[in-house]
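Regression check, NAP case 332:
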Amino acid sequence: MRAFVITKYKEPLREAEVAEPTVGERDALVQVHAAGLNQLDEKIRLGEFKQILPYKLQLVLGNDVAGTVLSVGEKVKGFKPGDEVYARPNQDRIGTFAERVAIAEEDLALKPESATMEEAGSLPLVALTAWQALVEQGNVRPGQKVLIHAGAGGVGSIAIQLAKHLGATVATTASSSNAGFVRDLGADVVIDYRTQDFEQLLGGYDLVLDSLGGQNLQKSLRILKPGGKAIGIAGPPDPAFARTAGLNPLLRLVITGLSSKIRKQARKLGVSYEFLFMRASGDQLRQISALVDAGVLRPVVGKVFTFGQAPEALQSLAAGGFRGKAVLTVTG
Ligand SMILES: NC(=O)c1ccc[n+]([C@@H]2O[C@H](COP(=O)([O-])OP(=O)(O)OC[C@H]3O[C@@H](n4cnc5c(N)ncnc54)[C@H](OP(=O)(O)O)[C@@H]3O)[C@@H](O)[C@H]2O)c1
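Current build output:
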């Protein structure tokens, strides 16, 4: 089948003929119709994740899929051929920039009925990230104040909508040209990160979802109220992540060290810092489907590429210039 692969880190994504996926007894084989592109794909291509995610090369890239079930393993109970599904496959089994992909049943969900394949393919990784940040780790409650950084981006555009649904007052950072767009998504306060300093304008926040790291994260700690929490998805990784990621003791030590400064700063301010590394979850995607079909969450597809344009689609992530997500149409 056709797929887009890397055979060496840092080399451009290229098209290849690869073997059909192996379908385990608890897997579904999915015909890929649409595959969302993520910054994670580019970071994997560049080798930035090779310690944490030690993939065997050649590797089919791609972390998001929407498509149709072609066949299922003998122990699969919840899906049948013809079902329209979406998923972020488990991190060990990525490879959605391909005509077909095998996905564990536990990572799969029926796609929202109201969403097109492109819309559904744009959602899994970013919507699961938003869910795990705001619902699981953030425990957002009605009346709380939440700051979502980079509100016009893939994660931000879904996180704003989810935080509003959870009853929060939502602030976000975006370019001035995206102010109306993020307000339409539900943002109550919009800060132009190019001309304004959010630290001077915000205070007493319960939660920050930080997708930029560095200075942005340090400043985010200072707008939290005592007991507040910053959740970082751009790093640095923290000891809890090092424990659960199954890393060797040396790497665990190194990773713990990476976040020691920011955790110390947080402690001094009476707030906390947690890293989030999203994970696959069919259960959470089912809840996300319900919210999409109820009109609570609106997928944001900013750019659609053909399958053959996968390399330039990946490059487009760095260039930006569109809202929400870029998606590949794989088969019609
Ligand atoms: N740890 C995890 O599990 C996890 C999961 C998902 C994503 N991530 C990471 O989170 C980051 C964001 O992911 P994404 O998919 O949302 O990226 P994205 O869609 O590429 O984000 C692009 C957006 O970033 C905004 N932006 C750029 N600089 C900014 C700044 N200084 N302040 C505020 N906004 C800024 C831009 O806003 P304007 O267009 O308005 O200028 C643009 O809309 C990436 O580094 C990604 O790898 C991590």
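Comparison notes: Residues 2-123+299-329 form a domain with the Quinone Oxidoreductase; Chain A, domain 1 fold (CATH 3.90.180.10). The pocket of NAP is lined by residues 38-40, 43, 125-126, 129, 149-150, 152-156, 173-175, 178, 193, 211-212, 233-234, 276-278, 317, 320 (CB under 6 Å). No diff flagged against the previous build.
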